[in-house]
Amino acid sequence: MTGRRRTAVLISGRGSNMQALVSAAKAPDYPAEIALVVSNRPDAAGLDYARDQGIAAVAVDHKAFSDRVSFEDALDTVLGEHGIDLVACAGFMRILSPAFVEKWLGRLLNIHPSLLPAYRGLNTHERVLGDCASAHGCTVHFMVAELDAGPIIAQSRVPVLEGDSADTLAARVLQAEHETYPQALASVASGEVFLN
User: Fold this and answer.
1) Which of 110, 120, 148, 184 would bridge 154 by S-S if both were Cys, CB 3.0 to 4.6 A apart?
2) Is 112 a catalytic residue?
3) Given pLDDT bands bounded at 50, 70 and 90, which one contains residue 1?
4) In this structure, is residue 166 part of a structural domain?
């Protein structure tokens, strides 16, 4: 494990992208080690999965804090206690403050279900279908203070098929996410891709 970048994955739910990262990191030549999983929801199913895999899993319940600064201070403390180098947000449903993002700049990744810069924000599948777009996909990017606006690390394109619903399209995009995020994390952890 020497030389592997200690990575935390932030989740809010079942953590299917986290599971894809954990699976990829089992390869001995993968440049990142999933050392910690953190959720802002104590009942997140992904925490149990991480524990079952022998990974430290911690809940930092945002509802237990009076404000975002206090929550993020607690989150940062947990990351520090585990010697974390990189942070991968994977279905983490909290917007992080500019101060937190700045502290982790270049080491904080996010995955978004669209081909950014198109369709920032929520409800991307419905919006793509509403626009009758022919393609959709996912983007892994470095996080910056502006939501879904950071430099792109990797993207995967998914066709929009005739008769697609938001659910069927979301399922195909999620499959692409499970392939794209591990590749993107590896490229950052290895130093192949970095933020100047």
Assistant:
1) 184
2) yes
3) very low
4) yes
